[in-house]
């Protein structure tokens, strides 16, 4: 597992993280090291310095260079069940990238207009909170490089998500089914979650962030068959 930290994360904080996990299972890479790795890609470095989502893009591209499939997850994702069977299905599919589905177009509309990304203006919409990437092809790299010409000058909170949504649309439909990788608001005022017990992961965005621990407790109850 790889964890990327933000700029200025102290060694003391990293040591605390490593106390919770076996050191041979967790690799922590700080932002400064990530940008040093991409020193030959000045447009990416410029985007990453200006925008945390640019740093997320740089982190994903660094791990993708290892030549192995990667499962990407934001920190506000709760893993409820094992994703291994789902990953096997995605590995057998010919689509290179699989993103979780979103309820609406949460994108960088300035980037969409200037880069003419009409393909992502219609359903299905995608979220970069959970992604499975088998590989990033040369054609995808070229697409990213072209978009970075705009992002190095101006970007927003949804810019990186917009980039990956465009790659997804070019590659084909995602197999991260909404009922397995859940993002929704229907239960934001409920004492019980609305997703199925077989749900693999939930991404807590906006109005449902307060439900993280409710759902973690509910999943434990399901595991022990407690009603």
Could you please describe the fold and organization of this structure?
- The protein is α/β, with parallel strands linked by helices and 227 residues long.
- The protein has a single domain (38-223), classed as Spore Coat Polysaccharide Biosynthesis Protein SpsA, Chain A, CATH 3.90.550.
- Helix content is 41%, strand content 15%.
- The chain is built from nine helices and eight strands.
- The strands form three sheets. Strands 3-6-5 form a three-stranded antiparallel β-sheet, covered by helices on one side.
- Helix 1 (11-20) links the parallel strand 1 and strand 2.
- Helix 2 (31-37) crosses helix 4 (52-64) and helix 3 packs across helix 4.
- It is globular, with a radius of gyration of 18 Å.
- The mean pLDDT is 93.
Question: Descriptors for this entry?
Answer:
227 residues, alpha/beta, Spore Coat Polysaccharide Biosynthesis Protein SpsA, Chain A, three-stranded mixed β-sheet, 41% helix
The CATH topology is given as Spore Coat Polysaccharide Biosynthesis Protein SpsA, Chain A
- Let me know the number of strands: 8
Indicate the structural class.
Answer: alpha/beta
Described by its quaternary structure, the protein is: single chain
- The Rg value, from CA coordinates, equals 18 Å
Uncertain runs are none
Number of helices: 9
- Count of all domains: 1
CATH class: Alpha Beta
């Amino acid at each position: 597992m790889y964890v990327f930290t933000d700029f200025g994360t102290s060694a003391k904080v990293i040591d605390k993280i490593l106390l919770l996990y076996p050191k041979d299972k967790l690799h922590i890479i700080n932002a400064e090291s990530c940008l040093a790795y991409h020193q030959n890609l000045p447009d990416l470095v410029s985007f990453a310095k200006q925008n945390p989502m640019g740093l997320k893009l740089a982190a994903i591209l660094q791990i993708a260079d290892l030549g192995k499939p990667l499962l990407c997850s934001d920190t506000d994702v709760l893993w409820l069940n094992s994703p291994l069977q789902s990953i096997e299905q995605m590995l057998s599919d010919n689509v290179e990238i699989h993103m979780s589905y979103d309820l609406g177009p949460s994108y960088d509309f300035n980037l969409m207009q200037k880069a003419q990304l009409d393909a992502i203006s219609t359903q299905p919409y995608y979220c970069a909170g959970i992604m499975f990437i088998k590989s990033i092809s040369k054609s995808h790299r070229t697409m990213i490089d072209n978009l970075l010409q705009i992002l190095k000058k101006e970007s927003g909170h949804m810019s990186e998500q917009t980039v990956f949504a465009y790659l997804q649309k070019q590659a084909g439909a995602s197999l991260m089914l909404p009922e397995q990788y859940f993002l929704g608001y229907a239960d934001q005022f409920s004492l019980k979650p609305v997703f199925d017990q077989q749900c693999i992961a939930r991404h807590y965005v906006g109005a449902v962030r307060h439900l993280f621990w409710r759902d973690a407790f509910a999943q434990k109850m399901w595991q022990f068959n407690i009603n």
